[in-house]
Amino acid sequence: MAKSKKKRQQDFQKVKLKVGKKLPKGDNVTNLSFKTRQIKFTQKIKVSDGKTAVTRNNLGILDLLRQCDHHSSTVRVNALCGLKELWLNHHVDLLVSSNVNGYASILKKLSTLLIDNESVVRHSVINLFKLILAKLSPKSPTSQHTHSLGGSLFTYIHTYLCCAMNHIHEDIKLDALLLFDALLDTFPALMIQQTGDLLKNLVGLISAPAYIGSKACPTTQKLSLNPDSKLPAMKYRAKVLQRIKRTFMEALKDEFKNHHSNPETVICSKWCLTNPKQKQNSRLVPKQAERKFSTLFFGGSHELDDYITNPSSLETFVKMAIPVLLQCWKEAWASIDEHSTSDVLLPADSLEVMSLVTSIIQLMFVLCFTSQKSDEAARDLKFQMVSPEMLVMNYLQDFDKIFMSSFPYTAQVFPELSRKRKKNKILQQTNNNESTQLSLNLSLCDLMCGLYTDVTLRPGKSLFKIRDYIQRVFKKSLSTENSKVVVRVLTNVFCNPHSASYFVSCYRAALKHYLSCSGETSHKNIFYKLFSFMSRTWDGWEMETAGPQPVHSYERNKDIQAIITDFYESLPSLLRDVIKNGNQEWTLEIFTLLNHCCTQNCLASLRKSLMNKVSETLDFQGTLLKCDNQHIQNQLFFLISIGIPLSRDLLKQILYCMRRPVEKPVLQQHSVVSHLIYCVILNIRELVPLKDQVEFNQMSQLQHSQLSDHLRFLFSLQIGFVSEELEVISPADSVQHKTDILCVDFEVQGDQWARHVAIAQVVAKELANTFLPACPDKGYVQVFSFLGNIEQLWKQTFMTRSKLHVLTVVSLLKLFYETSFQHVPVKLSAEFYDFGSIVLTSTMFALFNKEQPISQDVSQQVKSELSLCLNQDKVLFTHVSEKLHKNVEGSRILFMLT
């Protein structure tokens, strides 16, 4: 009972009140207070009129643009989604230039949101930017607005992009780089025109002014470090450096296109580092002026090898940027273990930054190459990118100390893990590191060897390191890009006569690699250009006979001479593959190089070997003379003229190309045919001694065979047909005909007459004027000529034929005409005159009797040739007159002729 009473007392205790205190309200009192809440509608509910484009929520473009300025990030994101929906469904209407609320209004509004504090808003802006730019880009196959982003619109976007790149928050800066990439992908030309502000802002992302006060140089920069950065310093700098490199790459491509579209252009205004409205001149260096510097300073990843521009406004930027880039290199180097005993091991981040630094410096030097300034004020400047000598003066010491102190560099290789996914990931990262490592080392070789185009620079320790590394590179499998860099390195070294002899082992390794490449491959073409340059430049040949010394710029080096000789001997086999694949440009290069070799002061034994190998390679009937490239034909004709051995089969091929097919022969122009005949004539003069009878009678059996083939070739040109056609037109009989009248065929096809007259003229003149003078002192009292051999060929061929073609008759007329001049010491025999009179008499009877249909044009031309020949050659006229006087019809014909 006591316990129950105590509990009841606790439940109903009396509250003690104090004086001045208010009584508390009871628990059962009703609370009459209330609160109100506001409902806000972010979207207006309205009905579309069907004329304007709206979203599925019936919001037009003006409503969405207005909501982009809302204070709520959710509303802004929804507005951007609505704009994206409108663009995807109605982009054709929004692209119309007359539409006031078209794509221009959207891009301007999106530009203002680049500096939005919310990342989700910025990402939506960048995604929508990419969609719109893809449609506006001139690269788009459906785009018809190639300049839709120019003018004030791009200036508006450019302004806010620069603001985003200069923002205090790192996230906004990184997002600005994404838009920078999108603009560079779609509108590179517009981005290049705004290079000044963009490049300075890119450099400003990783650096800050180092001066304090007004006395220091305002261009001096130092690396900036953000302790609150979400990214490691190396990764952040790599992102920025990648954009700088891409900008220079696009600028270089733009200059390359401009150069090839108009090679004579010397003024362009693509690069502006200040106000884009103030165009600054950039001079394109002509090819002749830029040869010794043409392959300088290219990174390992680009393909432009022979183009250098001169934007003078870049000099100030380069002066500011190179110290920053060198500081980036030093910062990347500071994270490496300095106690490495062998090759320095680079982590992936440091390796990427160092590779980007090297490539950017190379690209800047390429774009900054200029000629010597004439302005007196400019001459006082310490910084002038005018020549390799100035580059050596400004940068060689710093580059040698910073870049080459621990060359070559090696990437870190991570241990493989047991799990398959991680193992593959590690393996892929290792392969990427090795590729970047090779690119970095080759870029450094390229950069440093570019300085050695200064012919006054002597080899140093860094050059020997490069030599040893290049030798090791050839033991690896080289990609196309790396091969180009290696070739550039060796080419630049060869430009310096002081350093070329130190790289003989590298040139020998390059030649071995070149010879191992099969067929017509890109690798073979790359290394072909190296040895082609070396062979054109080298003048250290040893002369077999006494003569004038060549212009000397290299010391005599038998090792280099042997390398060039081996390269020349490989050209005929390469020519066979190139001709087979129909590569006309490369074919022309090889022919030009062979002509250079055979005409320069090279070894006579090498020239003879090359000529024989080329003769075994050529195929005129297959591809060479059939190509439309006039330059290839000219180089081939020149090679023939300097003494390449022409076999009977090759001469037959040339003959077929001149004659067949009749309607449209392979060689169509008469001038080309005549030029080829002259080259074949010069060819035999190079191969066979035709200066005096003593040497002529001492010629070898091979030379005798070559001369015999040459005479048969000239005779085939004279008769107007190849042997197969002659047998069809005029089949030979078994016995010799005694009749004085022959049958003449006057059927001529197409342009056959004019072509044959030109050929007959050249051949007849050559046969009449080729003779060996008499040498009474040495027992040769008579002048020797080849007319006797030609007479024998005529008799052997036509004495047993009763039918001739009018083209053969014209050739005979040309031969009598050319040999009738007084300066020709050897005349045709009386027996041959008798044969000629029979042919001409038969032709006259056929013309004047008109027993067969003859074209009036052909008839008139034959009569003209007959009159010209008979008026010139009185002996032939006498023989013909005797034949015509034998009958009345002949006398009438003779009367008409006289």
From TrEMBL:
InterPro entries: ARM-type_fold (IPR016024), Ipi1_N (IPR024679)
UniProt subcellular location: Nucleus
Entry's family note: Belongs to the IPI1/TEX10 family.
Organism: Biomphalaria glabrata (Bloodfluke planorb)
Residues annotated as domain Pre-rRNA-processing protein Ipi1 N-terminal: 155-246
Gene: LOC106067825
Pfam families: Ipi1_N
One Gene Ontology cellular component annotation held by this UniProt entry: MLL1 complex
Protein name according to UniProt: Testis-expressed protein 10 homolog
Keyword list, A-Z: Nucleus
